[in-house]
Structures are given as structure tokens and as C-alpha cells.
């Protein structure tokens, strides 16, 4: 793309940057979950942490697929018609929100586990 239209090179890097942001969501969640690990941990806490990791991972996977498909088509379309750039950015933002949903559900799950008081010791 940069060979044919070097003026659009910086605009066409945006999908790559947005895919990297999705990876950072997963990295942050893995650090937060590993910080709460202990040798003697209740079973429900482990399962909630597994669910939190899976929700972030699977939503990141879906967002990555969406960003990849939209980014590829958008970059090719922007090279032919520069007015498509705004539409590509809007659809990329909607795809990025999928990853944010997974991250926010992780926050809710881990907060509920930290406030949970078991009935049996």
C-alpha cells in the first residue's frame, strides 16, 4: 500500500494499532489475575478467574477477527476512495468495543469474587 499511495501510509496503520490495543487488554487482565493467585484458594475463586480470563480472551479473539477483516477491506477501499476512511474508523471503533465488553465483564466478575463471603469456613 505504501508503494502505491505513500500519502495514506500513516492512515492505514490504524487497524494494526487497534489490534495491538486488544492484546494489551489481555496482558493487563493476565497480570491482574496472576496477582490474585494464592496456594490456598477457594475453588469458586479459581473458576471465576478462569471465566474472567476466558471472557477477555474470547472477546479479544472476536474483536481481533473483526478488526482484521474490516482493516483489510478498509485499507484497500481507502486506497481507491479516500472518503471511505471515516467509515472504516467507525467500524473499527465498534469492533474495538467488543474487547472492551470482555474487559468490563472481567472487572465485574473479579469484584464480585472479592466481595463474596462464603457461608462455610
From TrEMBL:
The chain crosses the membrane at residues 12-35, 47-71, 83-101. Residues 3-33, 50-102 form the V-ATPase proteolipid subunit C-like domain. GO terms for molecular function: proton-transporting ATPase activity, rotational mechanism. Its main location: membrane. The keyword Zinc does not apply. It is a multi-pass membrane protein. InterPro entries: ATPase_proteolipid_c-like_dom, ATPase_proteolipid_csu, ATPase_proteolipid_su_C_euk, F/V-ATP_Csub_sf. One of its GO terms (cellular component) is proton-transporting V-type ATPase, V0 domain. Proton-conducting pore forming subunit of the V0 complex of vacuolar(H+)-ATPase (V-ATPase), a multisubunit enzyme composed of a peripheral complex (V1) that hydrolyzes ATP and a membrane integral complex (V0) that translocates protons. V-ATPase is responsible for acidifying and maintaining the pH of intracellular compartments. Proton-conducting pore forming of the V0 complex of vacuolar(H+)-ATPase (V-ATPase), a multisubunit enzyme composed of a peripheral complex (V1) that hydrolyzes ATP and a membrane integral complex (V0) that translocates protons. V-ATPase is responsible for acidifying and maintaining the pH of intracellular compartments. V-ATPase is a heteromultimeric enzyme composed of a peripheral catalytic V1 complex (components A to H) attached to an integral membrane V0 proton pore complex (components: a, c, c', c'', d, e, f and VOA1). The decameric c-ring forms the proton-conducting pore, and is composed of eight proteolipid subunits c, one subunit c' and one subunit c''. This is V-type proton ATPase proteolipid subunit. The lineage of its organism: Eukaryota, Fungi, Dikarya, Basidiomycota, Agaricomycotina.
